[in-house]
Amino acid sequence: MSNAAWESLSNQAVAAAGVVYFLALLAHLVEWSALRRLPVAKAERQPVGAGAPVPADDTTTTGDLESAHHRSAMFGRLGLLLTVLACAIHFVALLGRGLAADPVRVPWGNMYEFTLSGTFFVTLIFLVVRQRLRLAWMAPIVVGTVLTLLMIDVIWLHEEVAPLTEALYSPWLVIHVVSAVIATAAFTLGGLLSVLYLLKERQLARGGGTTGYLARVPEPAALDRTAYRLHAFAFPVWTFAVLITGPIWAHEAWSRYWNWDPKEVWAFITWVVYAAYLHARATAGWKGRNAAYLALLGTATLWFNFIGINFFSTTSQHSYADAPPAVVRTVDPGAADAAHDPLVGV
Amino acid sequence: MSTDVRPEGHVASSSPVEPEAPRRPGDLTFRESLRWLWRQVTSMRTALVLLLMLALAAVPGSVVPQSDVDALEVTRWQEANPRLTPIYEWLGLFSVYDSVWFSAIYILLMVSLVGCILPRTFVYLRALRSRPARAPRYLTRLPDSTSWTTDEDVETVLARAREVLRKRRYRVDATDETVASERGYLREAGNLVFHVSVLVVLAGVAWGGLFGYQGGVIVLQGGGFSNNLTQYDDFAPGDLFDPSEMEPFSFDVTDFDIDWLTDGPRAGMAQKFVSHLDYRETPDSPVQSYDLRVNHPLTIGDTDVFLIGHGYAPVITVRDAEGNVVSSGPKPFLPSDPSFRSFGVVAAPDAQPQQIGLEGEFYPTYAFTPDRGPFSAFGDAVNPAIVMQAYVGDLGLDDGVGQSVYVLDKDDAELVENPDGSLFRIELAPGQSVELPNGAGSVSFDGVQRWNRIQISQTPGKGLALTGVILALVGLLGSLFIRPRRVWVRARERGGSTYVEVAALDRSGGQEITEELDRVVAAMRGTDPDTAPDTDPETKGSKP
Ligand code: HEM
Q1: In chain A, which residue's Cα lies nearest the Cα of B43?
Q2: Which of A68, A145, B246, B358 has the most Cβ atoms closer than 10 angstroms to its Cβ?
Q3: Domains (range + CATH), chain B
């Protein structure tokens, strides 16, 4: 297959994945709306009962109820199946993107590709931990988020496959960026859980509903714990990405391992905020709600760093956003310390 | 004298100061407030707040241009905002990460860190040597606990409990009727390693900052460089840098290759730049060659040599009114955009009767449209041209004040015009020359050479910093994923059979431990095939 064929395959796969994600979302919406008016049974409100909706206890069983639960479970399975399918197609999109480039490379050389990879990992991580962390209930939110991000990616960030700028030709592109993408995906899932934690907590504080989606979301304590586990996974990966591989690469490409480039500044800020989150969970008075706010602050800095900096900063060398990258920024040997004049932006 | 804590104000107001008194109330309060202060500084809450302050303090550095990162951008910003400049300067906003307030935050954080690590290390060492915590009196009151009755005797049950727990890598301490066990000691070790590593990283970074240097030089293709201070175009040493630490290497740029993309979405982009070097590590060592590329620095001893930029140096010859050559040779011009439109100046201080200066641009692929004026259509030197203006007069080149070779001081010079008063422009392709009006001299454009911008840096401590972050990561993994757990088993004779209670506790808080409890219980009762004793406890229990 030619490069152009791979590229159009990738574009088609992105569109197909979008459609299947949308169908998965519909299936999950039906799953949950089937239970819309049913009160949550006691057993379901246990912190451990965080799985997909389970049949209510027999005292309330009527024919109606049973069929509603049956319908719900069926659509739940359908939704899962569609999500797995979408994830597979999403992977094909990534593969095509990588193979379309000349020379063949990993598909995270610009913002479009980074977002495509990031959303893929959100789905993948979700599917992998779904069972273990009992996150089936989260499916509509995850699928909805991935679909939204994917649409933003296609509409605003799409770029043609292009050769990489010189500094990106490095094995560190594979290691550094993939770890950043995986950490971003896991932090994003953790952030979603923290939002739900706050919503659920507020609902309970107000006396709590017994119907609707939120009522079937696990107890705050369980949400907090699961959010922590995702953050605890993402944090070392992020550390590896921004404090180990990033500096090693920066040293090779730009001669300084740390230069307080805006992208580096915000990676550092994100890291520090998440360190604060981990501390908060161990500090009386900061546990729970404040920790959740810190987690969200972390998510905000993370995404600002990824999208915001590219658009707002003119001095970042990590200029994914520049369509034709400046080959040489003004070299200024007269200045005392014009250390940073790379051949290209990364 | 009472030892209770009194509010400072109370003490001060009620007891006049008595110099002779052996123990003044103020002393105590002072010491106490010191201790109070120390406790505050080293508390988790303070660490948390300091971390957030650090994050916040880092923000301005990504908004305001930093002189360490982009000195040129700083100058531009200052010219655009003359009113704000002094305020920003006073606040240190052009070098946030060296500023007093930024340093204050992280130094406080480090103090807090040390104050945190030290006592915790002692506590940890003591805990390492101590026995697992004794069992609480009522095991079944713990949230994760269970109990059952069996016909086995107490001894057998406890022996099995010890065996099961040891197999699960618990440290076990047994008494007559209870088994106390604990595992996951390394979690705290990981946590301590992580926090100590933060200090190690900081030490590595500080070392590099103090003793290292960064320098840059433009070397023409075919030109050379030897590593001493005088050869650098710019040089930024650390405060404790010692020039005798500089490696005595030298190199020549023998050739420079570059590939230009002529089609596709990135047409016009340059790729695969390679600077071919011949170098010697010391003046007496043999010549070696190296292909210097982006991402592939040349390392000589402690020093790294990087290729970080390239550009054009038009070869321009200037003759004065008397026909003498007053300036000649390649002049590096500075690229200002991806098409390598480049800016540069030529100064001829010895020209007679007046000094001559040229200022203008070089275009590797010259193109012209009426609305854009001259521009470069491509980065490669396909159709090179220079377009410059000439100045005559006093260019300020004799007064001994050092001047950048990229700036022409035109205050006392006069723009050269045509006899009819129109603007005189030097527009030349290679091989062409032009006479200046009024017989002031002539300029010829003889050809184009290329230059490489080479960055040279010595960063001692980078290995230490790297070791630090890797240790930090290892510690972090231990700290986040090792589960500190306690399991207690108590077995007692009750009404002819044995009553067994088991409880488990996760000390990291909030982790689920039910599974662990289930597994321990399953192993003890033999329901797990992997660890079950040979006989089936169910059938055994049912026998008389
Ligand atoms: C540069 C400053 C610091 C950074 C980057 C940092 C980072 C971290 C991180 C990432 C963790 C999570 C690992 C874990 O949960 O075990 C952690 C835990 C911890 N940190 Fe820090 N820390 C810093 C300073 C401090 C200070 C000053 C203190 C003492 C007041 C402290 C006390 C602790 C404690 C007690 C834990 C364990 C919390 C737990 O048991 O979950 N840290 N720190």
Answers
A1: A283
A2: B358
A3: 30-123 (no CATH), 135-183+483-525 (3.30.310.80), 211-308+455-474 (no CATH), 311-450 (no CATH)
